[in-house]
Amino acid sequence: MTTAAPLVRRRLERGIAVLTLDSPHNRNALSTGLLKELTDALDEAAEDREVRALVLTHEGSTFCSGADLTEGRVRKGPRQLVALLKRIAALPKPVVARVDGHVRAGGLGLLAACDIAVAGAKATFAFTESRLGLAPAVASVPVLARGDRRAAARYFLTGETFTAAEAVRIGLVSAPLEELDGILDGLRAASPQGLAAAKELTAQPLMERLANEGPLLARRSARLFGSADAAEGMRAFLERRDPPWAL
């Protein structure tokens, strides 16, 4: 009996746990399996005394495309995403997102939950939910906690694609990819206690918002996923055609 290949690969590089999303066949979508493996990898890194910080990166041209629309349990996804975002925010070690590909929908929530995010020239970003009859409900919590609310209103509503430079401008990304080595050197130079205490200061507002708003937004997202508009929007997406409301 063959063992399925992992959806999240792990390696240790001089005190940095590198977690690589390795499900390129579905653009690293947040499937049930990937969510579980990523949560397990975060828990393992949290307990490992050799790990000073984490880097979350990706295999293939997409960092994360959001919900796995091919799964029959897609309506349970929002609640699972809330749990994952809480885990990242509560982790006593900083998490750095390294992106050099596309980020879509719920993948932007995953990105924004990380303490630091860097993006390369190949990175593109879009909140595509409105075009599917949905909304970035759960993802909005870390995105609005980190970034520019006026810019978020534009991109939530229009679903436009924007660049890494724009993501830096609006606060969704911390810095260009070429600054990653300096960031990691800084994390390696800090004490574990110092990192945990500093992260607690910066992540506290996000943790409070996830606790207060996460369950409500997960239920709202599940209702949207169960709507007729969303069913047609997801069908159109999977069939690579425009939905009937597109003008």
UniProtKB/TrEMBL annotation:
Gene3D superfamilies: 2-enoyl-CoA Hydratase, Chain A, domain 1, Lyase 2-enoyl-coa Hydratase, Chain A, domain 2. It comes from the Bacteria. InterPro entries: ClpP/crotonase-like_dom_sf (IPR029045), Enoyl-CoA_hydra/iso (IPR001753), Enoyl-CoA_hydra_C (IPR014748), Enoyl-CoA_Hydratase/Isomerase (IPR051683). CDD domains: crotonase-like (cd06558). GO terms for molecular function: catalytic activity. Belongs to the enoyl-CoA hydratase/isomerase family. This is Enoyl-CoA hydratase. It comes from Actinacidiphila guanduensis.
